[in-house]
Automatic annotation (TrEMBL):
Gene3D superfamilies: P-loop containing nucleotide triphosphate hydrolases. GO terms for molecular function: ATP binding; hydrolase activity; RNA binding; RNA helicase activity. This is ATP-dependent RNA helicase. Residues 425-627 form the Helicase C-terminal domain. GO terms for cellular component: nucleolus. It catalyses: ATP + H2O = ADP + phosphate + H(+). The Q motif is unique to and characteristic of the DEAD box family of RNA helicases and controls ATP binding and hydrolysis. It is found in: Nucleus, Nucleolus. Residues 181-388 form the Helicase ATP-binding domain. It is an enzyme of class 3 (hydrolase).
Length: 807
């Protein structure tokens, strides 16, 4: 008889078994029989080993296992055997008694998976392994021509020398070469578009710094007579960016540049930090301000000392993202306020601004991706803007009136799409990370993008060492204990599953918008400065603009919600001409078509290849966790994958006191979670393992997030094709938990876009959706998404057997 996806775990090693099957539903008599039988077998005195076991849904009939989210018997590739769904009885395997007893009935990872549509070029795969193809010439690297340097573009010698000697930037990149002269010599608005990692930040910062410097320095660098620029001279430039992290990063780059002009000052005003101290800094005086739109609007409304009369530049970095996040109104307000003030030709202290700074207010828009909403932003903020791109051909395309520029990925970025069945996602991720860090020094940092904060939390918990980090003993001499950075206590931890003999320590980090700002800042710092190999598990909060040069690998474990987001995510690697690799996880089926709309050459890869490499050697299971099978050199990668999955499932099923003998409950059906209030059998409920709770929450949020892919891409990301039972396995769950369809998730991705859209349709925005200038993974799912999920859930509950082939 075909096992149809059932893994029968006859040999499970000596690890403690952590869960018992709960017998629910059906007739009381059936449940008692089933429980009795399970008990007998547990003590080795089974009287009826070969009998069919209890099936709660079909008492008295042949059993169903717990595969496929409660459904077992018909695979989507199998023909229906009767009306009304459900497989024919002959296809239903028998569940061995002891497997039910232990709760270790688990669907096999390697059966019942959908077939791939992709045609893999195995010959090519081989060639790739043996003799790597010539790497593509980097497309976002600094220009190598001898003749190119910053001074020749018009930047003062002082700054050019500082860049070359202190910041190791001798030659500009293509976008810098095309932007700097324009912004120095002209006063027109500009729209900078160039691929990720191409140096757009310095492309707009350097001309601004150069022109502010020119207020007090002559062209030869000597100081102007009787001219003093100090903190009170006025605010000359405002740079807006969508996230706090990006604002801090821009400020860090600018501070480095300003070290050669120490009298110029920049600061940030961003959400999540003390407004009081921001006000104090503004009061002291600042020349360049970097802000998130929400917080700047707030200060413009409430901080009198913030005078925008002298402002000459407004830069909107990642403008499209700000529009997506729903900051259109804030940006309108900011632009309106800046333009409303009469342009001052002299500042209050009599410093002449005219003739040195732009004669009009200049707006610079900056993005690697352009969409309709950026054009709209352009309409709000730009007037006769020049469109500056990195290459001539792009500029020509623009001159010809091409409305939509193709999003390009850095040419040197190696992109792969791994087709992974839902059930195998978690083990494949671990296999990939394990092989990534197998060789010392080959990869130092990897980023894993996940769709929502709950899922980030779960994957962080599941991948980090479960053993609590031991606190250091207090010093014997009574001195105060050494300070540990409390901010990263819950966001940074070692990850033993992905270590290797060459890399015995890999540090895991997590980041999302629901974390407090000091935690976010400290976590990002830890990741950027980590000397050990490091992994960052994150939402799209880290997808825009973030510049950690040592990132060698980006894994899109959950595909992005829209193509531009994908471009930004993969752009966290292969920056400024460096090499990089991006791996996209796709499910077999409609998702496989997604690569046709993405930029660059994407090589498809089978998950088997990833697992073979990753699980060629044993996974380092953390101590004191269930180990389904002691390691054996001869184990195959498939067995290792099965055991690894089982290990996670067991970890999730662990409950406090599971390892202790406890026969005190006389009624097996009013077990730890019995509802019988007042019943003599009622017991104190035993809480589920926090990891299990987290897995359920992550699963629910993941499914909700899945429903929020942009409309144009829903043909690839089709809710109705998702197999919830299989997907649950990727969260270590043996079945899909309920409660997916109802309500909204507070921590699901793509909030403001939909929230604002809804608001437009249904009246004023709720206060909670406003000014989330930083929390781009906080918010609610749009109604349309909720409706699609509800439809899916209804279909599931109406006919669980037809769940496989919805739509
Ligand atoms: N001329 C240069 N020479 C060497 N490195 C440079 C140069 N210009 C910028 N870089 C480096 O390139 C990296 C990417 O720069 P930046 O963050 O400005 O890119 P970007 O185009 O804004 O990317 P994204 O679109 O992803 O935000 C940074 O590490 C920066 O220090």
């Amino acid at each position: 008889m075909a096992d149809d996806g059932m893994l029968l775990n006859f040999e499970l090693g000596d690890a403690p078994l952590t869960s018992q099957v709960k017998f629910k539903g059906g007739r009381w008599r059936d449940r008692v029989k089933a429980q009795k039988s399970a008990k007998e077998e547990a003590s080795g005195i089974s009287t009826q080993p070969s009998k069919a076991r209890y099936d709660p849904d079909r008492p008295g009939k042949r059993p169903r296992g717990n595969d496929d989210g409660g459904y077992m018997g018909r695979h989507n590739k199998m023909p229906r055997t009767g009306g009304g769904g459900g497989g024919g009885a002959s296809e239903i395997p028998w569940v061995p008694t002891h497997a039910m007893k232990t709760g270790l009935v688990s669907s096999s990872l390697f059966t019942s998976n959908p077939e791939f549509k992709t045609k893999f070029d195995d010959e090519n795969d081989k060639t790739n392994d043996d003799e790597p193809a010539e790497p593509a010439k980097p497309s976002n690297a600094p220009l190598s021509e001898e003749a190119e340097n910053f001074h020749k573009l018009g930047i003062s010698k002082r700054v050019a020398q500082h860049l070359a000697t202190k910041l190791e930037m001798k030659a500009p990149t293509a976008i810098q070469k095309n932007t700097i002269p324009t912004l120095i010599n002209e006063d027109s608005d500009a729209f900078l578009q160039a691929e990720t990692g191409s140096g757009k930040t310095l492309a707009y910062l350097l001309p601004i710094v150069h022109r502010i410097m020119a207020l007090s320095l002559n062209e030869d660098g000597t100081p102007k007579k009787d001219v003093k620029v100090d903190r009170k001279s006025g605010l000359f430039a405002i740079i807006l960016a969508p996230t706090r992290e990006l604002c801090k990063q821009i400020a860090a780059v600018l501070e480095k540049v300003l070290r050669c002009v120490p009298w110029l000052v920049c600061t940030t005003v961003i959400g999540g930090e003390s407004k009081h101290s921001e006000k104090a800094r503004l009061r002291k005086g600042v020349h360049i301000l970097i802000a998130t739109p929400g917080r700047l609007t707030d200060h413009l409304d409430h901080t009198k000392v913030l005078d925008v009369g002298t402002v000459r530049w407004l830069v909107l970095d990642e403008g499209d993202r700000m529009m997506e996040m729903g900051f259109e109104d804030d940006i309108r307000m900011i632009v309106g306020k800046i333009r409303a003030d009469k342009l001052q030709e002299k500042n209050e202290e009599g410093l002449v601004l005219k003739g040195v700074l732009p004669a009009r207010r200049v707006t610079v828009l900056c993005s690697a991706t352009m969409k309709m909403n950026v054009q709209k932003l352009g309409e709000i903020s730009l007037e006769d803007a020049v469109h500056i791109t990195a290459s001539k051909s792009e500029m020509e395309k623009d001159a010809e009136g091409s409305t939509e520029m193709a999003f390009t990925a850095p040419a040197q970025l190696k992109q792969t799409a791994v087709i992974v069945p839902a059930k195998l996602r978690l083990v494949t991720l671990i296999g990939l990370l394990k092989s990534t860090f197998a060789r010392k020094g080959s990869v130092m940092k990897a980023i894993v993008f996940i769709s929502c904060a709950d899922s980030v939390d779960f994957h962080y918990e599941v991948l980090k060492d479960p053993a609590p980090v031991e606190s250091p003993p207090p010093p014997a001499d009574g001195a105060p204990p050494k300070k540990v950075d409390i901010h990263i206590e819950t966001t940074v931890a070692p990850a033993s599953y992905i270590t290797s003999p060459a890399n015995t320590r890999v540090m895991l980090h997590k980041l999302h918008g629901s974390l407090a700002q000091p935690v976010r800042t400290a976590t990002l710092k830890s990741f950027a400065e980590c000397k050990d190999p490091a992994v960052l598990i994150t939402t799209d909060i880290a997808s825009r603009g973030l510049d950690v040069p040592a990132v060698d690998l980006v894994i899109e474990y959950d595909p992005a919600f829209a193509v531009p987001d994908h471009v930004h995510r993969i752009g966290r690697t292969a920056r400024a001409g460096r090499a990089g690799k991006a791996v996209l996880f796709l499910l077999p089926g409609s998702e496989e078509g997604y690569t046709s709309v993405l930029a660059g050459t994407i090589t498809p890869e089978r998950y088997e290849e990833v697992l073979k490499k990753g699980l060629a050697s044993a996974v380092n299971l953390p101590a004191n966790t269930p180990n389904p099978n002691s390691e054996n050199e001869r184990q195959t990668w498939m067995t290792r994958a099965e055991n690894l999955q089982l290990h996670f499932e067991q970890r999730l099923l662990a409950k406090p006191g599971d390892n202790e003998e406890d026969d005190s409950n006389p009624n097996p059906f009013k077990g730890p979670k019995g509802k019988g209030k007042g019943s003599k059998f009622a017991q104190k409920p035993v809480p589920d393992d926090p990891l299990l709770v987290s897995a359920r929450q992550a699963f629910r949020s993941h499914i909700r997030a899945y429903a929020t892919h942009v409309k144009e891409e829903r043909t690839f990301f089709d809710m109705t094709q998702l197999h919830l039972g299989h997907m649950a396995k990727a969260f270590g769950l043996r079945e899909a938990p309920g409660g997916i369809g109802g309500g909204t998730s507070r921590r699901t991705h793509r909030p403001a876009l939909s929230a604002k859209k809804n608001a437009a349709a249904s009246g004023p925005a709720k206060p909670s959706t406003k000014k989330q200038d930083h929390d781009d993974d906080l918010g609610v799912v749009d109604e349309d998404a909720a409706r699609r999920m509800k439809a899916k859930m209804m279909m599931m509950s109406m006919n669980s057997a037809s769940e496989f082939n919805l739509g």
